[in-house]
Design brief:
The protein is 65% helix and 0% strand.
Length: 63
């Protein structure tokens, strides 16, 4: 979680103008989707968290 919030702060919040609270809420939701579905993570063998979880389920027989 700390890694996520650090990325949110440094990769998004500080670089994107946040004129209103509603805009910030939308931007945070957009970043969560990006972080989980598009951003590659070296800790996950350069896979997105969603793809990594799906691959682990296939290996474990849960998916």
């Amino acid at each position: 979680m700390e890694r996520f919030f650090g990325s949110l702060k440094h990769d998004w919040i500080l670089k994107v103008a946040q004129p209103t609270r509603e805009q910030m809420k939308k931007d945070v939701a957009d970043y969560i989707r990006y972080y989980n579905n598009d951003r590659l993570h070296t800790a996950n063998n350069s896979m997105t968290p969603v793809n990594y979880e799906l691959s682990e389920r296939k290996v474990s027989g849960l998916g």
